[in-house]
Each structure stands twice: as C-alpha cells, then as structure tokens.
Amino acid sequence: MKMTAKKKAFFKAQGYLKIEGVIPEHMVTQAVKKINHELGSTGMIPGGDYPLTLYNGYYSHKNHPDPFYASLVNETPIFKIAESLMGKGKLRPIGSGQIALPFPKMEDRASVILSGHIDGMGGKKTKVPEGEFWRNFTAICVVMLSDLPEPYMGNFTVWPGSHHYLESYFRTNGHGQLFQDLPRLREELPHRPVQITAKAGDAVLVHHQMVHAAGPNLSPHIRYAVIFRLNHVDIQKNGTEVLTDIWREFEGVREF
Question: For the chain, which residues make up each domain, given as ranges?
Fold first, then answer.
C-alpha cells in the first residue's frame, strides 16, 4: 500500500486521509473479541476513574497496555503510510491505543448538534488550565472496527481545512483564548463537518490541528474503534511552535 502524490496533496489540503482496507480481517476480529471480553470481564464503571470510564454513553479506555492494540499501527501498513507523511525515521513506534466505543443514543437527527474541538486546549471541563495549551501528538489515527456506511453511526467527524484556518488564527491571536473563541470560530470554519464513512479495517489519519469530534451514534449498534496518537520524534522540542507552522512535523507533504 503506497502513498501517492494525490493522497499527500489531499491530506495537506483537507487535513485528513482515509486509508481503506489497511487492517487485515483477522486483526479486526481479534480486536473486537478482546474489547468484548474486556467489557464482559472488567466491565464498565459509570462515571469511573481513569482509565476505565463510561461517561455520557461513551466507553473509553485510554492508553490501553495490551500490545496487540499497538500492533494495529506498528505491524500494519499504517506505520509506513504515516511515516511517509512525517518523514522517514520521524515517527515514534506506538506504545498504546485508546478503545473508543460510543453507544447508541435515544435521539433523532433533528436534536443533534455537531460540536468540534482540538485536543490540548485549556478551559472549563478540560484537564488543561485555562489559557494554556498541552500538545502531545502529531497526528490522530483512528482504526475502524465497525462498518459505518452512513453518517450518525458514531462516525469520526472532521472539519476539513480547519487546520489551515487555525494556523492563521494562532498567528494572530496566540492560543490562550482558543477555548473562549471556539464557539465563534466553529461558525467561521471553511467547510461543514464531514462524518467519515468507513468499513471495518479502514483507518483515518488526521492532522493534529484539525477540529474533530466523535459523531453521534443514532444507530442500533455500538461503534468500535481504537484511536492512536502518533508522535514525531521532535514533538517535545517543537512544542506549541507547530501551531503556527503546521507542516514542521510533516516533512513528506511540505512540497505539495
């Protein structure tokens, strides 16, 4: 599976890229089996403590220690594809993943509001102090373990081109007011949100500065996925400087 110039240009312009059929079927099956076993053995803690949480209809186990989940990136073509975006030898191996399961909601589409964010911004209802920005990844990788043939099935949702828009915003305003400004900025973003449809075994790579969200799940099924935070080898050195230099950690796409 090879990254083409067309795919790199799409990633640069839109800020995300869907990779079809990148996870072998046997790994998808094993991942779903492991997750279901965990739900039945460890269980879910309503409002529970990190890392096991069932909150507002969403089960999340962050930084899962089972190396099998990390192998979904490290031992599949995803690693080389992501490395082709960041530059050869620039991607750190994955150490853990986040099991992310939005459960069905008893709502209808008319009542749903899509509200995106970017990870790391400080403010109320976040772990980051107001006015600060904690940046701890270069790209998001979402490995789909469910078929999502249409929207409103818990689809990973992105606002295309928002990485470019926010680069301009940060150059003018810094990052201290992002939490307060985001409700207004959502209305000014260049494109409406895209709920990404996919099949089990597909993956999505997303730039760190993309506005994104877990889309509402109005289907009758739990949506299964594992989410990874991919890190450039110089992530600590670069820090928040990349907010105004969004291709510093993407050597492979700068020319496009």
Answer: 5-116+136-155+196-236
166 neighbors 244 (Cβ within 8 angstroms):
no
- 112 alpha carbon, distance to own chain's centre: 21
Residue 110, pLDDT > 80, answer yes
Q: What is the pLDDT of residue 41?
A: 81
**Are 40 and 217 contacting, i.e. CB atoms less than 8 angstroms apart?**
no
Confidence of residue 63 (pLDDT cuts 50, 70, 90): confident
Q: DSSP secondary structure string, 51-63?
A: TEEEETTEEEEEE
CA distance 219 to 217: 6
Closest to 165 (Cα-Cα) out of 138, 140, 180, 187: 187
**DSSP string computed for 27-39:** HHHHHHHHHHHHH
- pTM of the predicted model as reported, rounded to 2 decimal places: 0.93
185 pLDDT exceeds 70? yes
**Average per-residue pLDDT for the chain:** 91
CATH of domain 5-116+136-155+196-236: 2.60.120.620
Is there a cis peptide before residue 129, judged by omega within 30 degrees of 0? no
pLDDT one-digit tens code per residue, 70-90: 999 999 999 999 999 999 999
- Token code pair at residue 94: 């994955």
Please give the sequence-ordered ranges of beta strands (E in DSSP) within 44-185, or none if there are none. 52-55, 58-64, 97-102, 139-144, 156-158
